[in-house]
User: Fold this.
Amino acid sequence: PGPCERERRGSRGGAVIAGIVLAAGRSARLGRPKQLLPVHGEPLIRHTLRRVLASSLDQVILVVGHEADLVRDAVAGLPVECVFNPDSAAGQSTSVRAGLAALSPEIESAVFILGDQPGVDPKVIDSLIASWRTSRPPVVAPRYEDRMGNPVLFDRRVFTKLAALKGDSGARPVVRAHHDSGELQVVPVAGPAPPDVDTEADYAALIAALSP
Assistant:
């Protein structure tokens, strides 16, 4: 398991909800592991996880792959469960499957979070959870001022569709299908979507935007 702590927080009433943070990629466009980029003295992935852990999720799973040992070391001491994806080079869908495979039967929905979005707002995660608890839609996604975005919540009854994904598109095809069928629950969010870190310019902008 590595130095990640295998800890599950108690359910805060009702259904048990997990967060799955995807951090297994090779960061091909950047040329170095984005998970480990220093951001005000800490690795980027640690910033992301601290935000995620500030939400009301009952359990947080971190999917690692490329430079797995270094990423595990970077998050040591945080109450997350690290899951290794040996097939991460085959695309993000493999990390989605690895995260799903790590879920216990008691998990009723899961929020997928991108590891390279340290600007993710725990209040947005909680808004997705609140929306799901109200009517149990199959998929809940945030709509920011500029676009639809991440993170996205999936009800357990959608897990088989997620597990059937291939390639590097992640869960987008499942979100699109439920949008087209009118089954996508949308949560409006004030402000822009949290930026990804794919290039050196993205990294520089992140450093400027995130206060120490």
